[in-house]
Amino acid sequence: MMASATGRLCAGFVGSLLAMWTMGAVATGALASGRDAATLIGLTPCGPGQCVELLGLLKERFTRLSGELGAEHRETIAALDEIAKTHLRRREFALAEQEYLRVLQARISALGEDHPDTATAYSNLGTVHTFVRRYHEAISMYRRALAIRTAHFGPRSLPVATSQTNIARVQLRLRQLVSAESLFRSAIDTRTALLGAKNPLTATSVFGLAETLKESGRFGEAVPLYKQAIDTRRELLGSEHPDVARSFRGYASLLIRMLRLAEAEPWLVRTLEIRQKTFGSRDPAVGLSYNDLGALYAQMERFSDADAAYASALGIFLETLEPNDPLVAKAYENLARLYYRTNRALEADEYYKRALRIMGIGPNSSPEMVPGKPTAGPRPDVSKPKGRPEPRGPLAR
To answer: Cβ–Cβ contacts within 10 Å for residue 386, how many?
Structure first.
């Protein structure tokens, strides 16, 4: 009953994942495949207005199970874990951290410090810390999970490969590139041996290694890895899958780093199209794609297109996220930088002040003091009129 209700209440992948969680595949099912919240959550948030009814149902279920089975029963803890995951998707990071801490405490009390499900709880807290950029805390949580999983499953196991990938992702953000590369390669070896090269989890680690090599300036080595990740994901998941879009975005960023800007545009456009089709036109993931296009157009000095793309991103973020969300601040900042470049100083000053207020470092910095929402400008033309370049190069089909 709960699984079918979940499918009706949430759209797309959110519904399918939460349906799986409410059926009880939270700790054991995820752990058996070496997956935890870092793998499942990805980069696509759920806006504050989405899944509200679902969250209420999950809380009702948790309350019922607590009364019937007790606070430390496996199903009760799993229900609490579902609530935490939903808060994380809605970018309610403080609430997600609070609930994941409760999950961790319950699992330590019921199962012990060194149980695999306790490792998953540590890992999920690491995911929250990663989202709020507390990277050193995230690595600490991920390393604790890695130690438990290594002791329980052995060094060449899927849960260990998941922990290695999680740590490497954070190290990539911290530019600890040598260590990140080593961990990604170890995860690739394990996942290839146990799952095969043609597997979505293997592709995730391959993609992470490609990103690491790109950041290391080893562009030639990164290209075939992007090709492998794109081909695997497209073959196994379908050409419209969000992970395929993420691969396209990564390859586009490589092209941009190589100053092949015109080649990067169609890959970013394709990313936008997949996200629009998958999540709808007013989803934060779509806003992120408009933001990417705005940055590219600004670099190409196509300022009108950049303005339209950045304005579209801001409009989506204001509509779907909390007013003090970091993505809203970043959108204001992007427009301010663009307006400074195009001699629109008064508008730039206003948008920059809005960004500072949200970040809490300007005058009157309370989020409630942020000025009203601006009207988003016209969206850039990202359709495919005759003559628009299609994705090409070694990764195109």
So the answer is: 4
Global confidence as pTM: 0.77
CB 2 within 8 A of CB 15: no
Report d(CA 229, CA 251) in Å as an integer.
10
Which residue stretches of 33-157 are H helix?
Answer: 37-41, 52-69, 74-89, 93-111, 116-131, 135-153
Which two three-digit tokens encode residue 162?
Answer: 């998941």
pLDDT in tens, 284-332: 999 999 999 999 999 999 999 999 999 999 999 999 888 888 899 999 9
Contact (Cβ atoms closer than 8 angstroms) between residue 62 and residue 80: yes
Q: Give the three-state DSSP class for 43.
A: coil
Amino acid identity of residue 152, one-letter, is H
CA distance 216 to 236: 29
Rounded CA-CA distance 350/212 in Å is 37
Q: Token pair 């005759």 is at which residue?
A: 386
CATH of 151-237, one of 3.40.630.30, 3.10.20.30, 3.90.1640.10, 1.25.40.10: 1.25.40.10
